[in-house]
Design goal:
It is a single chain. With 285 residues, the chain is an alpha/beta fold. 35% of the residues lie in helices and 18% in strands. Helix 2 crosses helix 6 and helix 3 packs across helix 4. The protein has one domain.
């Protein structure tokens, strides 16, 4: 890979089910097990574009939006946004953050795991924590048809497989944020990243997808983006590959919905993730 990601972010989230529609009649129910979430990769939303907030909830305070854009402030923005979105869904989030500069997926895999998968006997069958990862290619500009970019996406696929397998060993299930597809070219780097994630899954990576944002455009015979009805290509920036706050917030909204739904369905940290470890063990054989 050409260079390390500018920043990766790590936070732990303690989640507890809220409400429950009960009075004293619910006191016999066991308390839901708190869910811990760790997040790695690029922050989902950016304070530098926070002026276009999602109408459904207040994402960023005016003071935070006025901060100089940085990995730290973007991490805080993401945490604030995710907290609000989960709260709307009846899930209370207790979030702490830590920014780790210069930590890329490939660096983690090579330095911590020597680039190798764990053995089948190392996997746990009941992950007790969840992870949300938003790793990107080091180069999110060069089209996916470029030979160097193709090599980078192949490496990303291999790294995500190993990373998610070791997460399963640590008792953590991995939710992968799907990249927002850009309209700069049909063979965009974002499309290459999307394919790399799918290839990792098809190779047996114990991952679940989250944060999908439907694309609202196609391409004509000349390779020019053609928006569908109701789609404004201005949301993708002047270069057609820089999603604005509207799309960032839509992605975060989708992530919050996925996490809240999975949590409420299981009522515990581990139940939703049994399949992850089983898939990981199968892939390592």
């Amino acid at each position: 890979m050409k260079k390390a990601l500018a920043a990766a972010l790590l936070f732990a989230v303690g989640l507890a089910a809220c409400g429950g529609g009960g009075g004293s009649g619910d006191s016999s129910k066991p308390a839901a097990k708190a869910l811990t979430i760790s997040m790695y990769g690029k922050p989902i939303v950016s304070s530098s574009t926070s002026t276009v907030a999602h109408a459904r909830f207040s994402l960023i305070s005016s003071a935070m939006a006025a901060d100089t854009p940085s990995a730290a402030s973007d991490a805080q923005t993401t945490v604030k946004s995710l907290t609000d979105a989960l709260a709307e869904r009846g899930v209370t989030a207790n979030i702490t953050t830590q920014v780790i500069d210069g930590t890329a997926l490939h660096q983690i895999v090579t330095t911590e795991y020597n680039g190798k998968s764990p053995t089948p006997d190392q996997f746990k069958t009941d992950p007790g924590e969840w992870m949300i990862v938003n790793f990107q290619l080091d180069d999110m500009v060069t089209p996916a048809t470029d030979p160097a970019q193709q090599a980078a996406t192949a490496q990303f696929t291999a790294d995500l497989l190993v990373f998610s397998q070791w997460a399963a060993v640590a008792g953590k299930a991995v939710f992968v944020v799907m990249p927002i597809q850009t309209c700069d070219t049909h063979y965009s780097a974002s499309n290459g990243l999307y394919t790399a994630i799918l290839n990792a899954f098809n190779s047996g990576a114990p991952i679940r997808f989250t944060g999908a944002v439907p694309t609202g455009f196609g391409f004509d015979t000349n390779g020019k983006a053609v928006p569908t009805v109701g789609t404004d290509l201005a949301h993708y920036g002047a270069d057609c590959r820089t999603p604005d706050a509207y799309l960032q917030n839509a992605q975060l909204d989708s992530i919050a919905g996925d996490i809240a739904s999975a949590y409420k369905e299981t009522g515990s940290a581990g139940g939703a993730s049994d399949a992850f470890a089983a898939s990981a063990a199968s892939a390592a054989r």
